[in-house]
């Protein structure tokens, strides 16, 4: 992997978890009332990390680290969706 891409990968992989936690906390807060104003920004940041990892996967299809980081991001995305889907009883 090119040095610049290594930096990009490291940042996207590292920040995926923290952006997931921030978006999840804001989404849970939204369940109790009106969505916080920065929820959309937090979700966009999380999606940006996923888009970066998907691009790296296309550029480096044999890179196991990228594949694992993308799989982790996808799992976090599924978990995040559980906070965003409103439940109706």
- Record field, number of beta strands: 0
The number of helical segments is 3
Taken as a percent bin, the fraction of beta residues is: under 5%
Low-confidence stretches: none
Quickly count the domains.
1
Instruction: Specify the biggest β-sheet.
Output: none
What pattern of helices and strands is seen along the backbone? HHH
Structural class: mainly alpha
Structural Rg = 15 Å
The helicity comes to over 70%
Mean pLDDT across all residues, rounded? 88
Note the overall shape.
elongated
For the record, give the distance between the C-alpha atoms at the N and C termini, rounded to a whole number: 50 Å
How is this fold's topology laid out?
Layout: H1 3-31, H2 39-59, H3 64-84
Helix pairs in contact: 1-2, 1-3, 2-3
Core attributes:
89 residues, single chain, 80% helix, mainly alpha, 3 helices
Can you tell me about this structure?
There is one protein chain. This protein has helices at residues 3-31, 39-59, 64-84. The protein has one domain (3-84). The mean pLDDT is 88. It is elongated, with a radius of gyration of 15 Å. The longest helix has 29 residues, at 3-31. It has 89 residues and is mainly alpha-helical. Helix 1 (3-31) packs antiparallel against helix 2, helix 1 packs parallel to helix 3 (64-84) and helix 2 (39-59) runs antiparallel to helix 3 (64-84).
């Amino acid at each position: 992997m090119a040095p610049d891409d290594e930096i990009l990968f490291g940042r996207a992989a590292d920040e995926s978890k923290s952006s997931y936690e921030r978006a999840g906390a804001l989404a849970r807060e939204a369940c109790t009332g009106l969505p916080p104003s920065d929820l959309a920004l937090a979700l966009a940041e999380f999606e940006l990390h996923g888009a970066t990892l998907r691009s790296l996967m296309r550029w480096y299809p044999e890179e196991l680290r990228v594949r694992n980081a993308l799989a982790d991001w996808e799992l976090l995305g599924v978990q995040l969706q559980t906070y965003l889907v409103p439940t109706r009883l």
